[in-house]
Amino acid sequence: MEQINGHEITYQYETEDKVLLAVDCIIFGFDQEDLKILLIKRGFEPEMGKWSLVGGFLKKEETLEAAATRILNLYTGLDNIYMEQVDTFSEVDRDPVERTISTAYYALIDIKEHSKNLIQQFSANWFSVSKAPHLIFDHDKMIQHALRRLRNRAATEPIGFDLLPEKFTMRQLQKLYEAIWDTKFDKRNFVNKINSLNIIDKLDEKDMTTSRKGSYLYQFNAEKSKTQDIRPFGLKI
Amino acid sequence: MEQINGHEITYQYETEDKVLLAVDCIIFGFDQEDLKILLIKRGFEPEMGKWSLVGGFLKKEETLEAAATRILNLYTGLDNIYMEQVDTFSEVDRDPVERTISTAYYALIDIKEHSKNLIQQFSANWFSVSKAPHLIFDHDKMIQHALRRLRNRAATEPIGFDLLPEKFTMRQLQKLYEAIWDTKFDKRNFVNKINSLNIIDKLDEKDMTTSRKGSYLYQFNAEKSKTQDIRPFGLKI
DNA sequence: ATATTTCGTGTATTATCAACACTAAGGCTG
DNA sequence: CAGCCTTAGTGTTGATAATACACGAAATAT
Questions:
Q1: Cα B58 to Cα B89: distance, rounded to the nearest angstrom
Q2: For A164-226, which CATH class?
Q3: Is the CB of B100 inside 8 Å of chain A's CB atoms?
């Protein structure tokens, strides 16, 4: 009850059920070969010791986005990371202890940038998406949804660069997209396509670590990218 | 606390905050001209009397999907309707009374099929998406997200038919897609495109209500549609 | 009979996608 | 230092899909 202008008004809210709301993060990284996800050995009951997504409970005074950001930072030490809400999972018995609804977010990070200490501290590990162990609760399903969302998003917006270092080679970029969609592109077609999008700049520097000849480094250009519609990467297997 | 194998285990759950979880439904319909949404004059505080999406609170023993279905049925009398989760909205002060997180779903219904009685009973009304009044809380934002999702989905899956009667004319179908994307298609190109998808059957019947000549009726063929990849409707303005 | 309205259809042009193979650079090795 | 080896870098052609575009047919109303 509450008083407004001298009238008593009753909110229906008081009689409604409250639930626990959690956030789980699918943290994607890329190691030059495979698309990977960061998993932890769960440190508390239930299902202690089993592999799990990183997650946590929503606090009263934060948004889901803030919670996802907080959790990501807790486990990787990173800030300012691209994240996107995937879906909210609400099967009644998805958590055996108590009714818990969970909203999944995925994050794209440069795999070299996260804190190695934290990884150790939480018994965390990177797994290739295709070789990840079975996870607790409905986390496997969350990954499938996140992957689907990532694939759709990456096809129409230039988010892949978040998974690479600031400077990257054309070959790295190609391997990344091949990993995201589990496919192969023709090298020449890929270069032509990317260049036609006009969203990355070729630098004068070369990366000498993977070949004697060296390969040019590129850099994502957010300005250029803003001014144009990114069209799908439609390239054949 | 709980006993398992004689050991006491503590779940962290007990100390976590619980919140109210609501579901709001963006109910889309199509009236041969405009894409419309069903709104109600809110019958309780806060914001009583203002326009709002239809919604309700999640109950302890139901999933979000079940809640969305229940709410849709409550306001339209309809069952077995295409629905899709859009996003979960969690701004801390989105509801002024109490912290409430809300998951939005959109539904596609044949606008002629819903219960007129219920509409009256709830002081509900159909509004063109482009002419809808300002809504309470973050409901305007929910509609924008739903619309975006609908546009993406309709571009790659044959869900538009849920907005039409079972039998429809090619012209109706075209107007529907024009309404969804707020664009115009060339009549000949549209027909060619739809026919190439091979997912609707031409009937022998004609609809005589809109022209002297009459126009052929078509019917969605779910079987055919299942056996092929639906490709985007890529047609120019 | 003729006027009016909406229906229904095909082709030529352009843009995008897909297939395809060789030379260049530079360090390494004998 | 000559040849070797590995990865980088690049262009053209044919196939497919998207777009632009206009007129006759049917049926009712006058």
A1: 14
A2: mainly alpha
A3: yes
CATH 1.10.10.10 segments of chain B: 164-226
Nucleotide closest to A211 measured between CA and C1': D7
Which parts of chain B have pLDDT scores under 50?
1-6
Which tokens belong to A158? 């230039």
Amino acid in position B215 = S
Which three-class secondary structure state does DSSP give residue A1?
coil
Q: Choose among A10, A88, A92: nearest Cβ to B88.
A: A88
As annotated, the residues of chain A forming the CATH 3.90.79.10 domain(s) are 19-156
Q: What CA–CA distance (Å, rounded) separates B101 from B89?
A: 6
User: Comparing C-alpha atoms, which of A86, A91, A22 is closest to residue B87?
Assistant: A86
> Which residues lie below 8 Å from residue A161, measured CB to CB, with a gap of 6+?
A168, A200, A220
Give the nearest chain A residue to B16 (CA atoms).
A57
A193 touches strand C (CB under 7 A): yes
**Cβ distance of B101 and A58 shorter than 8 Å:** yes
Report pLDDT digits (tens) over B17-71. 999 999 999 999 999 999 999 999 988 888 899 999 999 999 999 999 999 999 9
- What six digits make up the tokens of A111? 């795999």
What pLDDT does A6 receive? 44
CATH classification for the domain delimited by A19-156, as one of 3.40.50.300, 3.30.70.60, 3.30.1330.10, 3.90.79.10? 3.90.79.10
Where along chain B do the CATH 3.90.79.10 domains lie? 18-156
Cα atoms found within 13 Å of the Cα of residue A203, Cβ hemisphere only: 16
Bridge partners (DSSP) listed for residue B114 = none
pLDDT tens string A132-181? 999 999 999 999 999 999 999 999 899 999 999 999 999 999 999 999 99
Q: Which is more confident, A114 or A94?
A: A94
Cross-chain Cβ contact B21/A101 below 8 Å: yes
pLDDT one-digit tens code per residue, A34-86: 999 999 998 888 889 999 999 999 999 999 999 999 999 999 999 999 999 99
Nearest of A141, A155, A76 to residue A108 by alpha carbon: A76
Q: Does domain B18-156 have CATH number 3.90.79.10?
A: yes
Say yes or no for a CB contact (<8 Å) between B13 and A59: no
Backbone angles phi and psi of A218, in degrees to 5: -125, 165
